[in-house]
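debug: dumping io for the single-chain case to check the tokenizer round-trip. Nothing else runs in this session.
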Amino acid sequence: MADTKSSTLSRRERQIMDVIYARGAATAAEVEAALPDAPTYSAVRALLRILEEKGHLRHTMDGPRYVFAPVVPRNSARESALRGVVRTFFDGSPAGAVAALLDMSGDKLTPQDLDEISALLKRARKEGR
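debug: decoded output
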């Protein structure tokens, strides 16, 4: 799955993946139109080809156009990326990652956010995770 793919993406490659995940699938022209400070159409096509070679995208034909879609569902990609962040920056400690997220959030957490987090923790305890 995603762990076996070349997971190192450049900033621009991440932007392209974000566009494609948001749309579900996209042509090079659609990706170009959605990118901030978009590179040339040729550069977008080259980046799409690289992402396909890395195993992140696949394409189908729609007439003369290539339509690119993610190989891995967004949830799987998100989980794989998060596992890597926890392993790399928090010595594999989910508690350390959660503590950092809570510290970063500061006063941005609403009472509803805190209730939701509390419910998730209770469910994890109940399920023995």
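debug: round-trip ok. Helices lie at 11-23, 28-34, 41-53, 74-89, 94-105, 111-126.
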